[in-house]
Write a structure and sequence with these properties.
619 residues; alpha+beta; Nucleotidyltransferase, domain 5; 19 helices; globular
Length: 619
């Protein structure tokens, strides 16, 4: 214990608050709450409570801070916020924040709509979900819009209508009764919406029968493709609307939470019960310490999960008593605006549902172990294999380069980065070749490498390393070519005083990698190995990234040259069109209305563009 910590311990107050532990690098490594900071923090440095985690944590603590609060509840909220913001390595952490699709019926609108959303809000709408299959949700929404003529536009409509433009194509197709034109009253329209809501609520037998009849009719006509489409529709409707196998005898909203854990990982399974029906389930992976208790893990999960979701159920069921259960209920109740109860089921249906959730969590955890083992072999294991083949030892970061052009036109270079066997897309870079007017792949590659590593050296010298990924140099530079490109790379690195190994990819007659070029010699590779598959992924990614950039460059050049010829379209509007459209063909297909809605355009300029592309040719 250093002198600074000894002094800080003497100054600790006996009040509620949050304590924050830092290591020697001033990184937050642990955050906790206490009803009495003086007693709680001192335990860490005077024998602790015997947990192995503390034996690892305490030696790394260089100093600590604390924030006072007026109550233990405030400390709990603050602790949770700080953990989510800083994600200390010794805290139990929620690995990922998933969002789930809901079906939203905007009943607060005069003419309601049916939408897919990712968050529930207290806005007067009716929500169904959450669901685990977003594709099925979209299909069912589209089906309901067609079947019950529910509008899909974003217009804010009132009654009586004040039409400023004609009805859209959906009206012409019979998919919308055109409330924007005042052709249907809110009362008549609401009846259609109520029918759609009844289907979502589980009373969809009429719709299901219609689809089943159409499937049978199509099958009888030997139109099996159409029959298959109806079958898929039926399956999607069943996913979203069918009566759940597990139901409750009340209309409560409940979450059933279960846990499975091993030495390092845990899976928390949540069953969503809405209006008495089990409507979905989701699981979450968490990092845990060896000695984390079940109740402690679940309490941490509840704090992190419910702080990030807008919907809170009235009841939360957990498999065991939790630390600070009363405090958690108080916090959840304040967030919800109504009472929330945390319960441990003892018997009956809730206990059976809890057991089912636990079995699911255990199954997912076991499956995840195998998945992680395969992922480890596919990524880090493959990098280890490549390191041995390339004779560079430990391999963490690889950069691969490629050049793309058509006869020297719009020549571009690409840099892709793989770390621990996975693409790190935030570090990808694109280069527009500036020093060449014709085709010379070697000279283009020399420019790309010179610019990339010169930039990195300059940023390091200026002390901007933490802000620029260019300052992170690779363990190996991988060239998409043989001896010529390897020689270019080695010459550039040597001229800059960098000692980074360079390897080439030797291709077969089909331009697929068959061997590595290491220190001037070919190193054959077995196609069945993880290293070979990783090398193929790196090569494909470098090609994809370069070709995509080149295609965009060609499209922009083409758009620019043509737009220059349109009367009345100057540099400002030309840039607006180029920002909005990816290709000339998209500009050509755009309607006059779509053109006019672009920032910087107006009705007159939109008409000039539209007229240019659609005017009849003069004879």
């Amino acid at each position: 214990m250093n002198e600074e910590i000894q002094k800080a311990l003497k100054q600790l107050p006996g009040r509620p608050g949050v304590y924050i532990m830092y290591d020697a690098g001033d990184t937050i490594i642990y955050i906790g709450k206490a009803v009495n900071l003086k007693n709680r923090v001192r335990q860490y440095f005077h024998g602790g409570d015997g947990r192995p985690m503390l034996a690892q944590l305490v030696p790394q603590i260089a100093h600590f801070e604390y924030i006072l609060t007026d109550s233990e509840l405030e400390a709990l909220v603050l602790e949770n916020n700080l953990i989510k913001e800083n994600r200390p390595k010794f805290n139990t952490l929620l690995k990922d924040d998933k969002t789930y699709p809901y079906i939203k019926v905007t009943l607060e609108e005069t003419y309601p709509r049916i939408l897919l959303v990712r968050q529930m809000k207290k806005d007067g709408s009716r929500y169904f979900g959450p669901f685990t299959d977003a594709g099925a949700v979209r299909t069912v929404i589209d089906l309901l819009q067609k079947r019950y003529q529910v509008r899909s536009c974003r217009k804010s409509l009132g009654y009586p209508a004040d039409p400023k433009e004609r009805a859209c194509l959906n009206y012409q197709m019979g998919r919308c009764p055109a409330p924007c034109q005042g052709l249907i009253t809110p009362e008549e329209y609401r009846k259609k919406v109520d029918q759609a809501v009844a289907v979502l609520a589980g009373s969809g037998s009429t719709l299901v029968k219609e689809l089943a009849d159409k499937m049978q009719e199509a099958s009888a006509r030997l139109e099996f493709e159409q029959a298959g489409q109806y079958k898929e529709l039926l399956e999607d409707v069943a996913k979203v609307t069918s009566t759940q196998k597990i139901t409750a005898h009340n209309d409560n909203d409940e979450d059933i939470i279960a846990l499975a854990q091993d030495q390092k990982d845990a899976v928390v399974q949540v069953f969503f019960v809405r209006e008495g029906k089990l409507v979905g389930r989701e699981h979450f992976y968490m990092n845990v310490a060896l000695d984390d208790e079940k109740g402690e893990i679940l309490a941490n999960f509840i704090k992190q999960y419910y702080s990030g979701t807008p919907f809170l159920p009235g009841e939360v069921y957990v498999p065991c008593d939790l630390p600070d259960m009363d405090l958690l209920e108080q916090w959840l109740g304040e967030k919800r605006g109504r009472k929330v109860t945390i319960k441990v089921p003892q018997r009956g249906q809730k206990e059976k549902l809890q057991e089912l959730a636990q079995k699911n969590a255990a199954m997912i955890l076991e499956q995840n172990k195998e998945k992680l083992r395969r992922e480890e072999q596919r990524t880090k294991g493959a990098m280890r294999e490549l390191g041995r083949l390339m004779q560079v030892g430990e391999l963490h970061r690889v950069e691969a380069y490629d050049i793309s052009n058509i006869s020297g036109f719009a020549m571009v270079g690409s840099m892709v980065v793989f770390e621990d066997g996975k693409p790190k897309r935030s570090d990808y870079r694109k280069f527009r070749i500036q020093s060449l007017s014709g085709q010379n792949d070697y000279a283009a590659m020399e420019e790309v490498l010179t610019r990339r590593f010169s930039h990195g050296i300059r940023e390091k010298e200026e002390g901007n390393g933490e802000f620029d990924s260019f300052t992170r140099f690779p363990d190996v530079v991988l060239m998409d070519g043989g001896k010529g490109q390897v020689h270019i790379a080695e010459r550039v690195l040597g001229s800059l005083g960098l000692n980074i190994p360079v390897c080439g990819m030797v291709k077969d007659d089909h331009h697929r990698t068959r061997a590595l070029l290491v220190n001037g010699a070919e190193v054959p590779m077995e196609k069945s190995t993880s290293a070979f598959h990783l090398l193929t992924r790196i090569q494909d990614e470098a090609h994809r990234f370069a070709i995509t950039y080149h295609r965009n460059m060609r499209g922009k050049s083409q758009v620019t040259s043509v737009l220059d010829q349109i009367p009345g379209i100057g540099p400002v509007r030309r840039k607006a069109l180029m920002r909005h459209f990816a290709s000339l063909e998209e500009v050509r297909k755009a309607s006059e209305k779509e053109l006019a809605e672009i920032d910087g355009m107006n009705a007159k300029s939109a008409g000039q563009v539209y007229e240019y592309f659609h005017a009849p040719e003069k004879s």
